[in-house]
Amino acid sequence: MEDKELQTELASIRSMMERSSRFISLSGLSGILAGVYALVGAAVAAFIIYSNKPQISPDITANTPVNGLFYGRNYTFSLHGYDVLLMLIAAAVLTASVVTGIYLSIRKAKQKGQSVWNNSSRLLVYNAGIPLFTGGLMVIILLSQYHFNLVTPAMLIFYGLALVSASNFTFSDVKYLGLMDIALGLISACLPGYGLLFWSLGFGVLHIIYGSMMYLKYDR
Amino acid sequence: MKIPFEKLDKAFENRVRLQIMSVLMVNERYDFNSLKELLAITDGNLASHLKALEKEEYILVNKSFLGRKPNTSYSATDNGKKAFKLHLDALEQFIKQQKQQ
After folding, report:
1. All residues at 6 or more sequence positions from A40 whose CB lies less than 8 Å from its CB, including other chains
2. For the whole model, what pTM was predicted?
3. How far apart are CA A178 and CA A167, in angstroms?
4. Which of residues 50-89 of B touch A (CB under 8 A)?
5. CB B31 to CB A115 under 8 A?
6. Is residue A30 within 8 Å of A105, Cβ to Cβ?
7. Most C-beta atoms within 10 A of its C-beta, which of A38, A56, A70, A182?
8. Contact B22/A16, CB-based, under 8 Å?
């Protein structure tokens, strides 16, 4: 057997193993953009919260710790009237990130001549979907029960778990981003009142850092 | 130095069969159409190689229905996995020997 033949033999084994089990059309650029969207969304949310004088909502007593997202424990902020607005911002950030992610994945797959919706991407969506969907429901439940302090920790923890679970079906680097999000979520659960700050760190800053690293490593 | 030619599995001499086996090593099961797309070969070509591997009892065929559509998927048998590993070991031996020369 020739040396060259041996090399191509091994290369084809490696490529088949990777391409059949991992979705490698994820683009680092979508991580960077998702981080940027998150930071823009957080800035708009902070502006809304800061520009409106904190007040105590009539349907929540002064002692209920529905405190703000930035201010710390002893600051009471009424979400009355702004809650829908804040949720709309969050939904816009989520939608923009998902659309960007899908668009850039399709583009990258086309460049490489691979399909987007295949065995490995199905597994990826399914495995990330379970913790993500659970987390989404949990956040809705927390909001409906006025546990605002736990919204950011829940988002970060469930998102982190989704990434760890997804990392088996795409670049394994995604696992470390997931672990950092979980850690950040737990820390933010210990520090109620700084939700927006942790949210910006987890979904904004970490995404930009990791997206850039992935972009430099795989996309160039 | 003797090169262990006999250790190389004849069933994996063909590139397509080697690739099919690689896919089934890292995936519990894989269906026909996904394999076809991944390997970028024709139905007939893929079917004949799958038949050959099935004959060696290296893979198992699972037929099921997705709604009304028949869906054929394949998985590696323990025998097949063992054979594939031995084949890889033999390839490794080759490389080591070539480096020494």
Report:
1. A93
2. 0.76
3. 9
4. 88
5. no
6. yes
7. A38
8. yes
CB A142 within 8 A of CB A155: no
**Residues A40-55: what's their mean pLDDT?**
79
What is the rounded distance in angstroms from the CA atom of residue B73 to the CA atom of residue B23?
12
Q: What is the pLDDT of residues A1-21, one digit of tens each?
A: 567 777 888 888 888 888 888
- Interchain contact A21–B (C-beta under 8 A): yes
DSSP E strands in A110-212: the ranges are: none
B3 to A1, A129, B27, B44, B58: CA distances (angstroms)? 10, 50, 32, 35, 25
CATH code for the part of the protein at B5-100: 1.10.10.10
Position A57 pLDDT exceeds 90: no
Residues of B with CB below 8 A from A109's CB?
none
Q: Please check whether residue A14 lies inside any domain of the structure.
A: no
* Interchain contact B92–A (C-beta under 8 A): no
How does A77-109 read in b/e, with b if 16+ C-beta sit within 10 Å?
bbbeeeeeebeebbeebbebbeebbeebbeebb
Domain that holds residue A179: 27-219
Q: Is position A4 within any domain?
A: no
